[in-house]
Amino acid sequence: MTYQFDFGWLIESLPVLFKGIRITVQLILIGAVFGVALGIACAWVRALGPKWLKPVVAAYVELIRNTPFLIQLFFIFFGLPSLGIRMSELSAANLAMIVNLGAYSCEIIRAGIQATPRGQFEAGASLAMTPFQAFWYVVLVPALQRIWPALSSQIVIVMLGSAVVSQIAAEDLTFAANFIQSRNFRAFETYTVSTLIYLALAILLRQLLAGLGWMLFPRKASR
Amino acid sequence: MNRRNVCMLAFAAVAGIAMAPFPQARADALSDIGARGTIRIAVPQDFPPFGSVGADMTPQGYDIDIANLIGEKLGAKVEIVPVTSANRIPYLQTNKVDLVISSLGKNPDREKVIDFSEAYAPFYNGVFAPADVAVAKAEDLAGKTVGVTRGAIEDLELTKVVPASVEIKRYEDNNGTISAFLSGQVEVIATGNVVAAAILEKNPPKRPELKFLIKNSPCYIGMNKEQPALMAKINGIIAAARSDGALNTISQKWLKVDLPADL
Question: Which residues cross the membrane (chain A) (predicted)?
Fold first, then answer.
């Protein structure tokens, strides 16, 4: 192999890389919190919510789960301005990630809710719990506990999928890698470094979510 | 046959033999074109609006219009030869074409091997914005957001000259930059006049106007060296087209703007 490796660019590119990492982390943190919140709300509607709202949520979930993330992103960033809704590339990226994760996590959480025996819900009611308390303690928490690994994977997938936000000039880690590569033309080294960073971020995020799972569901004996 | 005729015939034969072994070291391209009745011109086929293949599969564009204009003025039939940017100069050097009208820029390396006519088309990178945005130089961009195509020459040049307070938004390709401008995500873009023409083609509510130049590299017609007659003729045609407005009409047709004053 005659290729001469050169990592000399790495030092001067560190600020760009760190900014990219910061943006990617920021995107996934905001995206995960609000996306899962949206998913819980939608799962509640689909499992137990008012009848008239169910088709609306079903349409949202089907629309998002059956279209590419990149198109959703372009629609928000390049399409919505035609309707007078203009937002910065970071807001657009965040919104796209929340909407996307919301739809996928809705279906994951709904599966968890539907796996909860109906009798438990009634048992909660017989213990004089309010409907909200019953939903929270009897339905949602055990449901989340059941589907936590699947939800964690979905969050990691969304983080890796966030690479496409560089297409609308949001300066995430992929943007940083592309930017550096367009200046040093060292594609192999640049993408090796960015691959390793994504790998580290994904492993870190998984550990973080696993830790969060331990904290949220301490009583789970079967784990 | 009388004596006199025989003498003349002999003279003609000797004269003919005497002339024949001395062809010109290099043929005069202009008289060749005249003798042939056709002029072979290299044009781009993959670089709109200068040259591309239309819906009816015929070449069209700024360069093709110039080629036809020159053919018409020379009274020669134009033979269009599609070339790529890599092989346009070799085509000329190996005498496969008489002229290269293929959005060819001038640089010292090329000047060593071929000659260039006067400029016939504007080609530049600059900062574009709607009329109501007051920008005349790089410093005026302070605090503004500028869209560029990542890694393009204007990205590299602009990054060097603008103040730190300028936010440069780098899009993946020219289409991203065009979309960002058309959707109003950025008001100012740094790009080439060809991309600006592509935006003007869409008749946007806000029309991008050139605010200042980043790099100016107009297009010239390339021809083989030591062809003074052809060179004079071509330059004459360009000068005439410039003064009678024919060149401006072509510029309006393909680039949607008037010719710049310096061309």
Answer: 27-47, 67-85, 92-113, 125-144, 156-176, 196-217
Range of the domain at A97: 10-216
Based on the fold, state whether residues B205 and B133 are members of the same structural domain: yes
Give me the phi and psi of B103, to 5 degrees please.
40, 50
Cβ(A85)–Cβ(A149) below 8 Å: no
Among the listed residues B193, B149, B189, the one whose alpha carbon sits nearest the alpha carbon of residue B166: B189
Contact B125, B214 (CB under 8 A): yes
The type of residue at B156 is L
In a domain, A23, yes or no: yes
Count the domains in chain A: 1
Which residues contact residue A61 at a Cβ distance below 8 angstroms, ignoring those fewer than 6 apart? A42, A46, A103, A106, A107
Q: Which of B150, B179, B180 sits opposite A178 (nearest CB)?
A: B150
Strands B167-171 and B145-149: parallel
B183–A81 C-beta distance less than 8 A: yes
Distance from CA of A38 to the nearest CA of B (A): 27
Flag whether residue B171 sits within 8 Å of chain A, measured between CB atoms: yes
Question: Across the A/B interface, how many CB contacts are shorter than 8 Å?
Answer: 39
Q: Read off the pLDDT of residues B42-61 as tens digits, 9 standing for 90 and up.
A: 999 888 899 998 888 889 99
User: Could you tell me which chain A residue has the CA closest to the CA of B149?
Assistant: A169
CA B6 – CA A49 distance, rounded (Å)? 118
Q: Do A179 and B185 touch (CB under 8 A)?
A: no
d(CA A63, CA A7): 44
**Both tokens of residue B60?**
């069209």
DSSP string of B196-243? HHHHHHT--SS--EEEEEEEE--EEEEE-SS-HHHHHHHHHHHHHHHH
Which of A78, A167, A175 shows the shortest C-beta gap to B183? Answer: A78
What one-character-per-residue DSSP string does B139-184 give?
Answer: GGGTT-EEEEETTSHHHHHHHHHS-TTPEEEEESSHHHHHHHHHTT
How far is A121 from A127, CA to CA, in rounded Å?
Answer: 10
Question: Mapping DSSP to helix (H, G, I), strand (E, B) and coil, where does residue B130 land?
Answer: coil
**Which residue carries 């004269």 as its tokens?**
B15
B185 to chain A, any CB pair closer than 8 A? The answer is yes
Read off the tokens for B236: 């004459």
> pLDDT tens across A145-184, in order?
999 999 999 999 999 999 999 999 999 999 999 999 888 8
Q: What pLDDT does residue B13 have?
A: 55
CATH code for the domain of A164:
1.10.3720.10
Evaluate whether residue A43 is within a structural domain.
Answer: yes
Nearest to A86 among B156, B169, B184 (CB): B184
